[in-house]
């Protein structure tokens, strides 16, 4: 299984008055993780957008396990959980420095043409990228 890892230093602006990371920041970290994974396997999401495609989120599920705080380093682990003709599900773990789990999550995405919002298969847009996702997907 291919897993991308990205360390993120938790900034004060990401916390609430108790110094605990505000829950919505995990979504931003997941996006950073997805972008890192895509880059590590040799592709560029911005390039897809330049070609007129976007990949909106259809669903997100997060399970918060243990609070993170200002000054800590969060490690975002990201992988392709499943990949079908029109949908890709990413899996995530967000870890404390000691390896304990702060949160687990999944996000479901599709690929659409920007000008008409119609779904399109990644295999039609970039067959090499599609093949790589199929290869590394956890669930076959």
From TrEMBL:
One Gene Ontology MF term: fatty acyl-CoA hydrolase activity
Which InterPro entries does the UniProt entry name for this protein?
A: 4-hydroxybenzoyl-CoA_TE, HotDog_dom_sf, YbgC/YbaW
Keyword Oxidoreductase appears in the UniProt entry:
no
Is Hydrolase among this UniProt entry's keywords? Answer: yes
- Please state which protein family the record places this protein in: Belongs to the 4-hydroxybenzoyl-CoA thioesterase family.
Question: What is the official name of this protein in its record?
Answer: Acyl-CoA thioester hydrolase
UniProt KW keywords = Hydrolase
């Amino acid at each position: 299984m291919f897993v991308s890892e990205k360390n993120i230093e938790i900034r004060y602006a990401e916390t609430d008055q108790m110094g605990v990371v505000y829950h919505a920041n995990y979504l931003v970290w997941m996006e950073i993780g997805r972008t890192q994974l895509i880059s590590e396997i040799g592709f560029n999401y911005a390039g897809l957008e330049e070609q007129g495609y976007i990949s909106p989120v259809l669903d997100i599920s997060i399970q918060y396990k243990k609070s993170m705080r200002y000054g800590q380093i969060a490690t975002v682990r990201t992988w392709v959980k499943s990949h079908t003709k029109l949908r890709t599900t990413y899996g995530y773990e967000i870890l404390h420095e000691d390896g304990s789990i702060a949160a687990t999550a999944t996000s479901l995405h599709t690929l659409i043409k920007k000008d008409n919002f119609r779904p399109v298969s990644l295999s039609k847009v970039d067959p090499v990228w599609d093949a790589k996702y199929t290869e590394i997907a956890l669930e076959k």
